[in-house]
Specification:
By secondary structure, this protein is an all-alpha fold. It has 11 helices and 2 strands, in the order αααααααββαααα. Helix 4 packs parallel to helix 6 and helix 4 packs parallel to helix 8. The two termini are 28 Å apart.
Length: 216
């Protein structure tokens, strides 16, 4: 970590406002203790407070099925090399029903960003058959996540594919989830929260090459 973590419990000199913020963050984490991310964000209590509210809504207040939410989060973690994020969310994805083949696909599948041939993804229409380890709706979320994270702009065909499976509310919530966890992953990696920047996600080499090529 590039900065010292805030003490837990906090210093006795903390203001009542800061203590109230810490209490709100602790309540969201309960029954678990404050995490390394929390103890970093609390260098700026107002930022930690806003972060806690926003991420709490993304994690617990949307209408998304847990597997869809966690596929988006885990894919962002792979694309941005955020090992800390992957470590925390891969087990949740598995608990939500994403099997070993699906997790391997999230971890190892090359991004389709900047590729012109998307026809293979669209075969079979709206049916919910599997493509590899993921259902077609799950793959649509992963493709959308790839474009949002690596290319920012999302092609119409990728968006239309998402609309085949999700309501307008769900699309807003998927988009907010991908955007939020891009914020989280960039914060984690920039400050080396959890001291994991030296770790490399298994299977992320190909994705890294795609991202680096696009950045040049």
């Amino acid at each position: 970590m590039r900065l010292p973590y805030i003490r837990d419990p906090p210093s006795s000199t903390s203001s009542s406002e800061d203590l109230a913020i810490i209490s709100r963050v602790r309540a969201r984490r309960s029954p678990h203790p404050l995490q390394a991310l929390d103890l970093t964000l609390l260098h700026s209590p107002p930022v930690a407070d806003g972060w806690n509210t926003f991420l709490g809504a993304i994690r617990t207040c949307t209408s998304l099925p847990a597997d869809i939410r966690e596929i988006a989060i885990c894919r962002v973690a792979v694309l941005n090399h955020a090992e800390y994020e992957w470590m925390h969310h891969a087990p949740i994805a598995r608990e939500a029903g994403v099997g070993d083949d699906g997790m391997q696909e999230i971890r190892e599948m090359r991004s389709k960003v900047e590729q012109s041939d998307l026809g293979e993804e669209e075969s079979g229409g709206k049916g919910e058959g599997k493509e590899g380890g993921l259902r077609k709706s799950q793959r649509a979320v992963m493709d959308y996540t790839d474009h949002m994270t690596l290319g920012v702009k999302v092609p119409n065909e990728v968006f239309e594919k998402l609309k085949n499976y999700f309501s307008e509310r769900e699309i807003v919530e998927i988009t907010a989830t991908v955007a939020a966890y891009n914020c989280v992953s960039r914060f984690l990696v920039a400050l080396d929260v959890g001291e994991m920047n030296q770790d490399k996600l298994v299977g992320s080499a190909d994705i890294s090459n795609d991202h680096e090529a696009q950045s040049k």
